[in-house]
Inverse folding.
């Protein structure tokens, strides 16, 4: 059962050369009770995808197609006005990227919480505060103290937790975290991840974590979706995807992660740079110019995201077995990284 | 293929400043209008008086209505209003430009040096700035006018500029202070680059949009100030300019009562309004002129 | 060669509500950086590691101890004379977005220090080639295509490319030491290894030594062999040893907490059996007369709240006898803990677990 079903979602941005897709035909399920990790480099469209789950793509962007079915709410792309506002926060809790800095510095946390309650027309504000305190306490914060604090009195890790309190205080069943551990040091990152897992389990949420750090996400996620150039290129159960990556990009991403175990010399950074809105390939596979497995067909037809075995999908023309046994991307040291836009 | 793309990219980003200027201005119609207005008035100030030479007075037609001969009618002395507006522009614009030049020169230099050096230099420069900020410009001008003849725009511009740079200096300093903490300035110091290099090449381009904006805004203020001085009659008239016209229209022409002097009153007023509008519209383009990131936004 | 002996730095803060407070950012840090060597410092944010980097590049002063660069004691020199030594130590900033001037192209960014360097060389009678050639050479060295990158503004480059430009800029003045302060933490994970292997390469090819400052222990592994790892907590080194040795068999509980926090790539790695975490959040306001880590330590014992432990070699008795040994001989695996115990906190590769 899925709490959120995204189907064929396309999000476009207006540029000087017309409307360009930042997310192109993405389909993704957030399964009830599971943590889904959405991994991609900067510019892969992962944050845009996450924002469209609130139907809050900022101008000059728009949802150009597809549906987002949220359990108990309906198709989010068709909602507007008050219904949409109720869904945001009420059904879907969102913790923004750099939420460490997204609190109002002039108001105490408690006051901002009351503002949130009033704007959502919560009748019983006392109960809201009580629930926030309870959430904060369970996350290892001193609820009373935190509500009386100003933003600057809290550390980065604490603010991140406050962000989660805000996202969940209205009893949202879906929790979305955008880069929750960026700019945190290792100890804070570990405790935030720990807390996300705990809160997720306690409240039986469906959680989506967006990150560029495949290492951090692998610690807590149940499922993994990999995004590149606005497309979801592979997804499946996390352990399985990490053990047997069948998309060359996933494989390269895993190989490019600095790890505390394993062979230092075996690790390889990804060559080249990730595409952005204007440089992403218009035809064929979006990854082909960085792909060691690319064949002729990759330049012509774009591979579809298809189920190739139970619970796993991939968008690649090359056989899974070839990718699995083939080489990781070839090294970068000394070789000039391609800088010019792919022609 | 990739090589041509990178070549094209390098040519594109190496385009001369002129192209960047054109692009930034033509991006929005308001900016084109603003620039057109400014250029129009500048041309008017430079070339206008050549067409008219000395002020011709026609004593037979006082307060004449607009006609083919006098497009905007005449004033109390029978001078052509259009001619006065055109010749008056030179003084107003020259004064505003000069005072703005002094303001930015002093303001930016002192603000940058104070923000970068900090310590004793900073304290000394900022006390000087505080002192300048406390000089009441208007009374000073009134007192000076008893001694000086403000017939040439130089003196008026100098006084307005010398008393007006305090705000710019404070603003630039605060920008410089925050820039100082940025990584690239730490790196420049670490590399051992000279102070001159750091101030002129690293910091100045970063405060430039800010300074330019301040400059344009202070020009508006200066135009208001000088016209106001003449309008109030606090400075003896020694040349034709918009402020004098306003003063004459109201206090001698009775423009408030008689409709015949209305055009005489409105002509300089509209000029001031349109010029201010032009500057405000053009302000919008300044950020993009200096900021390469905004310049190349898709 | 750089030697630091007991570097201390204390800040006085004047809070309007909190009152005056003394923050001891560094409490006597010693290390030796041999030519072409590498030293890493790891610790959480606020542990003083950034202050250390700034002191080493001359952007910050130290108020105790001595910094010796190539045998010259820097505190004996006047500030002007110090510049020459600090110029050889270049910093690679954490944030590649603020480390490059947004209004200047890569060409201008590299050109100015290169021309300055060329003038100096010419004045000294040395052969100075064309600065343009040198700029191209440096960009190639850091793995960028000169013709493509030179005319670009910083915002036209990705985070990884910017950091390479930052490294190229640091190399313009022919430094002997690079200080990398969180040099990869703001770059996409997928680009980090490229920067790390570049730093490693610079060590190997140019003999440049490296001070690597980070909160991410895993990245410290990639900057080079034979490097020493210093674990720094609240301005004090609490454990030191060869990088691999400290990572594989950490002794100090704080090191163990840091290493436990490194995410385990499940499916490829198993979590270490002794994984642990601090028992409380960092609180610098409460005085700690004993071990600085005692209030957060999961393994604190009776002595910890009263006595302050000093660095002693692992294997020796921590309390008394070890002290002399540590002072005489700073090398080897040392720690500052009364109850040292090697724990397996780091993840284990799947498959290697049984071995």
């Amino acid at each position: 059962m899925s709490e959120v079903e995204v189907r064929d979602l396309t999000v476009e941005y207006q540029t000087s050369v017309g409307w360009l897709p930042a997310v192109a035909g993405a389909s993704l399920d957030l399964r009830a009770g599971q943590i889904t990790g959405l991994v991609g480099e900067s510019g892969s469209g992962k944050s845009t995808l996450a924002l469209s789950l609130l139907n809050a793509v900022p101008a000059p962007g728009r949802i150009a197609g597809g549906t987002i079915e949220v359990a108990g709410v309906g198709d989010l792309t068709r909602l507007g006005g008050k219904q949409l506002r109720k869904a945001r926060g009420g059904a879907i809790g969102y913790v923004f990227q750099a939420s460490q800095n997204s609190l109002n510095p002039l108001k105490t946390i408690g006051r901002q919480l009351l503002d949130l309650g009033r704007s959502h027309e919560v009748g019983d504000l006392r109960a809201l505060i009580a629930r926030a305190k309870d959430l904060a306490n369970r996350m290892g914060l001193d609820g009373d103290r935190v509500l009386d604090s100003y933003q600057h009195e809290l550390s980065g890790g604490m603010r991140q937790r406050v962000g989660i309190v805000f996202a969940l205080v209205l009893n949202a069943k879906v929790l979305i975290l955008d880069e929750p551990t960026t700019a945190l040091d290792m100890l804070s990152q570990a405790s935030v991840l720990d807390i996300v897992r705990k809160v997720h389990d306690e409240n039986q949420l469906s959680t989506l974590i967006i990150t560029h750090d495949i290492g951090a996400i692998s610690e807590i996620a149940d499922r993994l979706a990999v995004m590149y150039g606005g497309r979801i290129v592979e997804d499946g159960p996390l352990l399985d995807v990490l053990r047997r990556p069948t998309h060359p990009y996933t494989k390269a991403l895993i190989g490019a992660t600095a790890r505390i175990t394993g062979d230092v010399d075996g690790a390889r950074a990804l060559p080249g740079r990730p595409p952005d809105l204007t440089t992403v390939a218009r035809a064929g596979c979006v990854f082909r110019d960085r792909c060691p497995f690319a064949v002729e067909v990759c330049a012509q037809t774009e591979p579809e995201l298809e189920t190739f075995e139970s619970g796993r999908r991939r968008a690649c023309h090359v056989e899974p077995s070839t990718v699995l046994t083939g080489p990781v991307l070839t090294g970068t040291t000394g070789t000039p990284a391609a800088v010019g836009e792919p022609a | 293929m990739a090589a041509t793309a990178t070549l094209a990219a390098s040519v594109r980003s190496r385009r001369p400043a002129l192209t960047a200027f054109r692009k930034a201005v033509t991006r929005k119609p308001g900016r084109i209008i603003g620039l057109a207005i400014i250029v129009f008035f500048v041309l008017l100030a430079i070339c206008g008086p050549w067409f008219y030479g000395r002020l011709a007075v026609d004593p037979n037609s006082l307060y004449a209505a607009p006609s083919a001969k006098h497009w905007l009618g005449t004033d109390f002395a029978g001078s052509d209003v259009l001619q006065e507006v055109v010749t008056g522009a030179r003084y107003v614009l020259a004064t505003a430009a000069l005072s703005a030049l002094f303001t930015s020169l002093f303001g930016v230099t002192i603000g940058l040096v104070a923000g970068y050096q900090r310590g004793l230099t900073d304290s000394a420069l900022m006390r000087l700035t505080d002192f300048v900020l406390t000089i009441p410009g208007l009374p000073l001008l009134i007192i000076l006018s008893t001694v000086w003849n403000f017939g040439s725009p130089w003196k008026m511009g100098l006084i307005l500029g010398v008393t007006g740079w305090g705000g710019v200096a404070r603003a630039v300093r605060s920008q410089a202070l925050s820039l100082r903490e940025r990584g690239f300035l730490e790196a420049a110091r670490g590399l051992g680059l000279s102070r001159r290099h750091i101030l002129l090449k690293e910091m100045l381009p970063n405060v430039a949009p800010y300074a330019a904006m301040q400059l344009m805004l202070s020009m508006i203020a200066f135009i208001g100030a000088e016209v106001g001085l003449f309008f109030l009659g606090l400075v003896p008239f020694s040349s034709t300019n918009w402020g004098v016209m306003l003063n004459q229209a109201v206090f001698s022409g009775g423009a408030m009562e008689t409709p015949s002097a209305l055009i005489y009153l409105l002509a300089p007023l509209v000029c001031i309004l349109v010029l201010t509008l032009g500057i405000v519209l053009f302000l919008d383009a300044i950020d993009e002129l200096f900021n390469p990131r905004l310049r190349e936004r898709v | 060669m750089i030697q630091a002996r007991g570097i201390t730095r204390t800040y006085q803060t004047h809070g309007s509500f909190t009152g005056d407070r003394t923050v001891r950012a560094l409490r006597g840090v010693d290390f030796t950086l041999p030519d072409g060597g590498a030293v890493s410092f790891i610790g959480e944010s606020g542990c003083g590691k950034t202050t250390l980097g700034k002191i080493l590049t001359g952007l910050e002063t130290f108020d105790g101890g001595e910094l010796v660069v190539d045998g010259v004691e820097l505190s004996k020199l006047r500030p002007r004379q110090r510049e020459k030594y600090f110029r050889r130590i270049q910093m690679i900033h954490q944030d590649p977005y603020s480390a490059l001037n947004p209004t200047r192209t890569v060409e201008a960014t590299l050109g100015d220090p290169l021309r300055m360097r060329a003038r100096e060389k010419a004045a000294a009678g040395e052969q100075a080639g064309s600065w343009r050639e040198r700029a191209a050479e440096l960009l190639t060295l850091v793995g960028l295509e000169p013709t493509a990158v030179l005319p670009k503004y910083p915002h036209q480059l990705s985070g990884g490319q910017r950091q390479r430009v930052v490294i190229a800029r640091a190399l313009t003045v022919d430094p002997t030491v690079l200080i990398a302060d969180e040099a990869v933490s703001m770059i996409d994970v997928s680009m980090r290894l490229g920067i790390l292997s570049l730093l490693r390469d610079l060590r190997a090819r140019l003999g440049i030594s490296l001070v690597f400052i980070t909160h991410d222990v895993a990245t410290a592994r990639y900057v080079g062999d034979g490097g020493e790892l210093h674990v720094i907590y609240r301005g004090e080194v609490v454990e030191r040893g060869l990088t691999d040795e400290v990572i594989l068999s950490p002794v100090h509980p704080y090191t163990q907490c840091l290493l436990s926090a490194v995410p385990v790539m499940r499916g490829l790695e198993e979590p270490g059996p002794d994984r642990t975490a601090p028992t409380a959040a960092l609180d610098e306001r409460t005085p700690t007369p004993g071990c600085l880590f005692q209030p957060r330590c999961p393994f604190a014992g009776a002595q910890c709240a009263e006595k302050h432990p000093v660095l002693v070699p692992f294997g020796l008795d921590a309390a008394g006898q070890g002290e002399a040994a540590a002072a005489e001989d700073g090398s080897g695996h040392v720690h500052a803990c009364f109850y040292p115990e090697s724990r397996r906190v780091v993840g284990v590769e799947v498959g290697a677990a049984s071995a």
